[in-house]
Design goal:
- By secondary structure, the chain is mainly alpha-helical.
- Helices cover 66% and strands 8% of the residues.
- The chain has six helices and three strands, in the order αβααββααα.
- The chain has a three-stranded antiparallel β-sheet.
C-alpha cells in the first residue's frame, strides 16, 4: 500500500496551508515567515515541491489544498502502526498508554469509536 507521508518541515508547511487556504502565494510567504520563520525562497520551493507531489495547487498565485489534513493524518497513522507494531492496533494502544490511566470519559469515547468501526 502506498501511504501519503510528509517530512516534518513539509507537514508544518501543510499545517499553515490547511489553516489558511485558499491563500495568495505572497500572503502564504508572509504566514510562513511569521509562523515557521521561513524565507521567501524556502516557501516557494516548498510550494513547487508539494504542487509536483499533488498535495496543493498554485494557480494564478492562489494556493489551494488538493489533499485534506484528515487523509494525511490517517495515512501517516496507519503507516506508523504498520511499520512499528506490525499493524497491530492492540499493541499500539498498549505501548501508547504505557501504564497511564485514562478517565472514564476517555474510555467511553474509545469504546464508542471501536463500536463504530467494528465489523
Amino acid at each position: 500500500m502506498e501511504y501519503l507521508k510528509l517530512c516534518d518541515s513539509d507537514y508544518r508547511f501543510m499545517q499553515v496551508v490547511w489553516e489558511y487556504a485558499p491563500i495568495n502565494s505572497g500572503d502564504l510567504v508572509k504566514k510562513c515567515n511569521e509562523i515557521l520563520g521561513w524565507k521567501k525562497s524556502t516557501t516557494y520551493t516548498t510550494i513547487r515541491k508539494l504542487s509536483e507531489k499533488g498535495y496543493i495547487v498554485n494557480e494564478n498565485a492562489i494556493v489551494s489544498v488538493l489533499v485534506e489534513k484528515d487523509r494525511v493524518q490517517a495515512d501517516e497513522s496507519e503507516y506508523f502502526v504498520a511499520r512499528t507494531f506490525g499493524g497491530s492496533l492492540p499493541q499500539f494502544l498498549t505501548a501508547f498508554l504505557g501504564g497511564k490511566k485514562i478517565s472514564d470519559q476517555e474510555a467511553e469515547k474509545i469504546k464508542k469509536l471501536i463500536d463504530e468501526h467494528r465489523g
